[in-house]
Amino acid sequence: MNIDSANVDDDNDDVYIPEAPSKRPKRHAAEQIQELKAAYKQCDHPDEKARRALGAKIGLEASQVRFWFQNQRAQMQAKAQVQDTKAVQQEHAALMAENASLRHAMLTMSCVACSGGTAPAEPSPEKRRLLAENARLRDEHMRATALLHKILLEAEAPPPSGRPVPAASTHSMLSAAVEGRGALLRHAEASMDQFLMLATKGEPLWVLTPDGEVLNCQVYQKRTFPVLLGTCPDGFVREATREAGVVRGAAAHLVGILTDANRWSETFPGVVAGATAGNVVNVGVFAPHNGLIQLMNANLWVQSPRLRNRSVNFLRYSKLTAEGHWAVMDVSVDAILGLEGSRKVDLNVDSDVMQAWHKGCRLLPSGCLVEDMGNGYCKVTWVVHAEYDETTVPTMFKPLFRSGKAHGAQRWLASLQRQCEYLSALHSSHVPRSSHNTGTISPMGRRGIMELAQRMMASFYSAVSGPVTQPSSSIDEWHGSNGTGAERIAAAVRMVTWKKAGSMDGEPAGLVLSSSTTVWLPNTPPQLVFEYLCNGQCRGEWDTFANGAAVEELGSVATGHLDGNAVSVLCPNVTDGINSKMLILQEARTDASCSIVVYAPVEEERMRAVMNGGDHASVDFLLPSGFAVLPDGHGKARRHAPCTSEAPVGDGNTAGALLTVACQALLPGSPSGEHTARAFDDVGGLLCRAIKKIKAAVKAKIVVASLM
């Protein structure tokens, strides 16, 4: 595998900006630059071995070679962007010229018979009727909008003191709806003010520490009294995180994604399990999405079978705060809707939309500021401020949640940055090559491969973290181990079986076994685990499908500026029967919050058809397996956390990894209970052996199994 994932120190930008030296840095010699450019033409993402060899050849350190390649990639991307911009400008100018020409032709149009100017055509009676009807409807809409606005303002005004509350009347339902929307509008405006304060203010509200920014709760409570959602429930803890970064895309485009429930969940596939939009409380005015307030429900997940999904019901309020500056704010509404107290409001809320009310999480004013930078990029400041029930979090995962890396701002922003880069690579004609074999994938095939990989990733997320929704499914727990003594690896594996129906092309039905488990590798950096899993030369150590040997990369597409983000097609060294006719589709993703490696076997004939531009829908069934690597929350903690946990404590100076391993397989025939039990033992043992190989490769001292 030629994709370099062995050294990813450049966390954010592809351009290396060194610290200011004490003297002027020495430039590379002309001969060195010529050699570097020649190597870049061959491969613009060389691996560590290639960088060292090239450095030794021209007298440079491997790190210098890596930084030169990073800068060169950034320059090429900038040039490509300039070319795209010029092409769009030229096309725009041509269209404007054509428009002007057509307008001139219409104004100077003459009659063929007499060479005189043509009189404007008289509108038909039907057109005149439609214009009059349109004007009448527009007038009625304006008067109805003004009346509704007046009613809402009257509902917001508090009743005079001493006046008794009137009894219910025949208009009680209308009054309740008006009052409910008035309460939500007041709640949204107050929450937006708090969010803007959290997103824009520095000290003393946010205190800068060596571990990052920490919210000063005393200052926050003084500035926000009285609190919006009441006191924090017993057993709940607070998390407050803030992160800022640069994201590819226009501000209006990003706001459009955030205000659409479906597009929002598609943009954050590793964070949002599903989202639905409820009633629109307020419609945007003057600009699309400006002032839009809507009820939403979302289920959030973290890639591990041991963690419950987090369900939140909230208002999403988007507001244009200045030209090119947007604020998109979320805040829980359970209390406003009467689910946590006595203030119950009838909003005719759709029960299917708000299907899961308070589930152990309250979202205080959170969201993001989006500032258009005018160069195709935006500055995004993300804030997550929430309270959650810590008793629902398993002991091993409590440091992860307390650090803010499970559902915090860092994860949201990193996911947005990576997904925007992914979509840019999907739609752009200028995609950097990640290996010299990329030519085996056609331009149309590249898009098909990436869309097929998106389907594979969605299936993996559901298998690892999603609820079991397949009919005739069952969930079991398998406990086993591999090895003895200090080399013994124990694991508790979730086993899910469900029946797969036969496909249209004659593929038989069968029983699918989906297995997954999470283990803790203390003091083992997550990036080290990710690098090992992406190393094609070592794949045979843990992947039985690779037949104990290295795999050949037939082609790959880089999906981000960080080394390791790529979609690849691999050919295993297999010679036996059916498996010799299979290829491996793999996607690797890494950012500041997590790393994921997912792969699935695909018939070679269908895979090559997609690589040549065929429809990826021909691959109608994927059973992905893979790994999710999360930080364990130890080491350099980014946020303050309560000190009331019995969570295991590792070396406070070294971050560890939470490794989730998942394997899916189609069991042949119609397995009986005894056959299924043997399959559990086989697959459970397979996972234990893979974990053992990873432990040895990354030199982890111990492996701790995660129990229910």
Q: Can you walk through the features of this model?
A:
- The chain is α+β, with helices and mostly antiparallel strands and 708 residues long.
- The chain has three domains: 32-73, Homeodomain-like (Arc Repressor Mutant, subunit A); 177-423, START domain (Alpha-D-Glucose-1,6-Bisphosphate, Chain A, domain 4); 431-705, Alpha-D-Glucose-1,6-Bisphosphate, Chain A, domain 4 (2-Layer Sandwich), CATH 3.30.530.
- Helices cover 34% and strands 24% of the residues.
- The chain contains 14 helices and 20 strands.
- It has helices at 30-42, 48-58, 62-107, 125-156, 172-200, 217-223, 251-258, 261-267, 398-402, 409-427, 443-465, 526-534, 604-611, 673-697; strands at residues 206-209, 212-215, 236-248, 272-282, 293-300, 310-322, 325-332, 361-363, 366-372, 377-389, 474-482, 489-500, 510-521, 552-558, 566-571, 582-590, 595-603, 625-631, 657-667, 704-705.
- The strands form three sheets. Strands 11, 12, 13, 14, 15, 16, 17, 18, 19 and 20 form a ten-stranded antiparallel beta sheet that branches.
- The chain is globular and about 80 Å long.
- Mean pLDDT is 80; it is low at 1-22, 160-171, 339-358 and 637-652.
